[in-house]
UniProtKB/TrEMBL annotation:
This is M18 family aminopeptidase. Pfam families: Peptidase_M18. Belongs to the peptidase M18 family. PANTHER family: ASPARTYL AMINOPEPTIDASE, M18 FAMILY AMINOPEPTIDASE 1-RELATED. GO terms for molecular function: aminopeptidase activity; metallopeptidase activity; zinc ion binding. It comes from Photobacterium indicum. SUPFAM superfamilies: Aminopeptidase/glucanase lid domain (SSF101821), Zn-dependent exopeptidases (SSF53187). InterPro entries: Peptidase_M18 (IPR001948), Peptidase_M18_dom2 (IPR023358). Its cofactor is Zn(2+). Keywords: Aminopeptidase, Hydrolase, Metal-binding, Metalloprotease, Protease, Zinc. It comes from the Bacteria. The keyword Transmembrane does not apply. GO terms for biological process: proteolysis. One of its GO terms (cellular component) is cytoplasm.
């Protein structure tokens, strides 16, 4: 009789396999370092995809098995497609990851001066512990769209020669009344997440200009980028942790970085689809935006872009025979992995986990049958038959996997994009990696799990269910 027994994936690995994992993770570090925003991530993906033979959908009038195409939605979504042997209308294999991460966004009118320091006001994006973002080096990334039609790319704080930005925390000598008695959620309040951007006043011969440090900062921005204060209104600028991904631990088995939720799944699913030639069913790697704030907007999965590009695929294969019912049938017959992360068992706070149902670092892909909160609210709950088919598939290919839940029933909860995929009738389950310090500026993942994700997604794209 078979018993349930998960084991650590590092055990009994030979040197060749360990070297393969480390080499793969070096490529992943590059991806994390160069793709800290959605726009950067999409641009990087498109560049790599074109090097692998993918072409924009606009170049195809007719799709044939083996064709490699891509779609880009407003520079924040990308869908990579390898057309399969079977008709697209018979169903698709989707692996869907999100490429947005918690961060601090600049407000539309951010710059001001106080106590002879220039500062910028921010608004946090996604679920963060606000105190984690103070007294640490931050980098500014994004674009400024000017009235003249220019898009100005800005990255300040990543090059070792760049200045960085920071939120000044209160020293422990003076925090007793102002800060120490606050709850953890209010150690720093939202309106206190303000970054220092300058300290040197500028000599001016205009009595109307009172804020000389602010004026100095705006002058330097104009000199370097030809942007002025009103241009912040039409900008997408965000603060992220400065610095690169690093190995963690004396043995180097963990990788620490900002944004691994969920770029760990984005990178591994990209690498998986790059490595397939002609699958049985059409394979789609879809990278989406806005998951951290509810998948809203025209670039989140709550939009209908999945319908848009799936319809384009069908039209280019079926031509005049296409009708809307074919797309609905195609989606209903499709399978998806909502490739998102789970909460790894934290040795310092085991009490919030149901240890028997918690995912562990180094144990491979995590299948999460349901997420949600307070009675599975807001969850996709994967069908038992689909879970069984995936168990069989991964076991047959010797893919390390484990089941996992986010935590104890009444401790909290969370959600993913799974429910938006299931809305179309797509068989869907969450499948990703276990992380420690999720949603922090420095998240931790097991290198073994990173490579095992890639193997699992590749098997999902090409093997029969």
């Amino acid at each position: 009789m078979e018993t349930l027994q998960y084991t650590n994936g590092w055990l009994n690995l030979n040197e060749e396999r360990i070297n393969e994992i480390n080499h793969f993770c070096e490529d992943y570090k590059h991806f994390l370092n160069k793709g800290k925003t959605e726009r950067q991530c999409v641009a990087l993906c498109v560049k790599q995809a074109e090097e692998k033979g993918f072409r924009p959908i606009s170049e195809f009038k007719q799709l044939n098995p083996g064709d490699k195409v891509y779609f880009v939605n407003r520079k924040k979504n990308v869908a990579l497609v390898v057309v399969g042997k079977q008709p697209i209308s018979d169903g698709i294999r989707y692996v869907v990851s999100h490429i947005d991460s918690p961060r601090l966004d600049l407000k539309p009118n951010p710059v001001y001066e106080k106590s002879e320091l220039a500062l910028m006001r921010t608004h946090y994006y996604g679920g963060i512990k606000k105190y984690q973002w103070a007294s640490r080096p931050l980098a500014l990334h994004g674009i400024v769209a000017t009235k003249s039609g220019r898009n100005v790319d800005i990255v300040i704080g990543e090059d070792p020669q760049d200045p960085v930005f920071t939120i000044p925390d209160l020293l422990p000598h003076l925090d007793k009344k102002v800060q120490r008695e606050r709850t953890a959620a209010e150690v720093l309040k939202g309106e206190e997440l303000q970054i220092i951007v300058g300290s040197i006043p500028m000599e001016v011969n205009d009595d109307k200009i009172k804020d000389k440090v602010k004026h100095h900062i705006l002058t330097k921005l104009f000199e370097k980028y030809e942007i002025s204060e009103p241009d912040f209104i039409s900008a997408e600028l965000m603060l992220v942790p400065a610095g690169e991904a690093r190995d963690v631990g004396i043995d180097g088995g963990l990788l620490g970085a900002y944004g691994q939720d969920d770029r760990i799944c984005a990178f591994t699913s990209l690498e998986a689809i790059f490595d397939i030639a002609m699958p049985e069913q059409t394979a789609v790697c879809f990278l989406v935006d806005k998951e951290e704030i509810g998948s809203s907007g025209s670039t989140g999965l709550e939009s209908r872009y999945l319908e848009y590009f799936t319809g384009e695929l069908l039209i280019r294969q079926l031509g005049n025979q296409y009708n809307d019912q074919m797309m609905r049938r195609c989606l209903w017959q499709s399978y998806a992995l909502s490739s998102d992360v789970n909460a790894g068992l934290n040795p310092l706070f085991e009490s919030v986990h149901d240890v028997q149902n918690a995912s562990k670092m180094g144990y491979g892909l995590v299948l999460t049958k349901y997420t949600g909160h307070g009675g599975k609210a807001g969850s996709n709950d994967a069908d038992a038959e689909y879970v069984a088919a995936l168990r069989r598939m991964f076991d047959d290919k010797e893919i390390k996997w484990q089941s996992g839940l986010l935590g104890k029933v009444d401790e909290g909860g969370g959600g993913t994009v799974a429910k938006y995929l299931a809305h179309y009738g797509i068989n869907t389950i969450d499948a990703g990696a276990a992380l420690l310090s999720m949603h922090s500026p420095f998240e931790l993942a097991s290198k073994f799990d990173i490579h095992e994700l890639y193997k699992a997604y590749k098997v999902f794209f090409i093997d029969a269910l």
